[in-house]
Each structure stands twice: as C-alpha cells, then as structure tokens.
# Entry
Amino acid sequence: MLKNVTLGQYFPGDTIVHRLDPRTKLLWLVGYIVALFLAGGWISYALMAAVLAMESALAHIRPRTLFSGLRPLLFILLFTALLNLFYGTGEPLAQLWILKITADGIQRSVQMVLRIILLVCGSFLLTYTTSPLQLTDGLERLLSPLKRLHVPVGELAMMMSIALRFIPTLIEETDRIMSAQKARGARFDTGSLVQRARALIPLLVPLFVGAFRRADELATAMECRCYSPGAGRTRMKVLSMAPRDGAALAVCAGILCAVCLLRHFGL
# Structure
C-alpha cells in the first residue's frame, strides 16, 4: 500500500508540460483549484475532469499511475461520502432515526468525492512533472514580493522542497522496516483495527530515528557547502517565461471564466 503513495515523486520527461516554467505550473494549479471549488453543476465537473485528462495526456502520465496514488486516501473518500450523504435537503429517499438520505445528499456526496479526487490528481501532476529544485525556485520567485515584509521566502521554499523530496524516501524506508519486521514474525494485515494500529507502533521508533539522522546529515552537508537562503545566491538555470507559458496561463484564465459562467447559469 505504501508503494502506491506517489506524492513527491518526479517523472523526468520532455513533454510540453515538463518544459513549462514552474511558476506557470504553480499558478495553473492555483487556478485549477479555484475553478474546482467554484464548480457547482455536473457540466462544470465534467469540464474539470476533461481538463485533468488533457493535462495527463500532454504530460504522458498514464491514468493508472495518476489514480494509483488515491488508494491510501480511500478511507478519507469513503468517510467524506458518508458524511455528506446525510446533509441533503428535500424529500428523504430513506430514513433511519434522524438520519435521512435524499437525492440532494447523494448528489452532494458524489460531487464532494469527485472534487477531492480531481484536486489530489491535479496536485500529483504538478509533482510528477516538476522537480523539487524547480518547485523551490518557482515558489521563491512567486513569493519574492513578500521579502519586503521580511518574510523568509527562501527558507519557506526550501522547507517545502525538502519535505516533498523526502516523502518517497520515508515511504521507502517504512516499507523496508515493515518487510524486516514481517520476516521476524510481525503481522500488520491481520487482527482487529486496534491490533493493527498497535502493530504499527514499533515502526515509529526506527522511522523517527532514521528521519532525524537524515535531517542531521542534510544540515551538516548544507553547512559544509556554506548554504545560505538569503541574498547573494545565484542559479545555474535562470527561470524565464516563454510564449507557451503565456498560452497556458491564457487557457487557465479561460477555464476559470467558463466555470464562473456555468456557475452563474446553475450548470
């Protein structure tokens, strides 16, 4: 199951999506999320699903790879669907005590789950097609105006980059520890829910020890290289916008306008 967590992984490629400026992709993701939360009808959700499919095709990311990362979120999706199922209005289709299921509740539940799936998959596409270093540079450039307010933009961008970079590493280490303990007779997939939770406790100690060791080694390496996130840093590859970035942002603005119009007409 842990191998299905793909957040933070980067798949190198030479597609048009990979070649976009990281600032463009970050702004695209923000616009995509805003449009997704503005979507109110089935036509709007169909449009957002089509946009996600278009992005996946342009990035040469297979749908199987994209949706495989949703498996660890199945519990959250089911809980969200169940929670929204009983908050509908109108004539109840079924009722148990104070809990009632209505057509509006079913629609709201399906749309909420669909919104989460589209949001998570859209975020996956960003990390799949953008390296952590590019994400750091793009985020730092976008937030550079905040430096005038003495906001540590460089430190924030670097922390985000390191967190994304070490997610696959920690997942791989957790899987390795679980395999080693299974070889010694530990069972993680049998028993009740409480027993399974207790079986995971012995994983925490070696996992935290390994995480702190990696953090200490990384800090030592950065100090030895005189790393400083402040002024004076130069970059080997300077970010620059190309015509394709302007076209991508124009498409994003068009999608936002289309979703707003659909919301206005109740679609």
User: Anything to note?
Assistant: The first helix runs from residue 16 to 19. The first strand starts at residue 92 and ends at 96. The chain has ten helices and two strands. The mean pLDDT is 80.
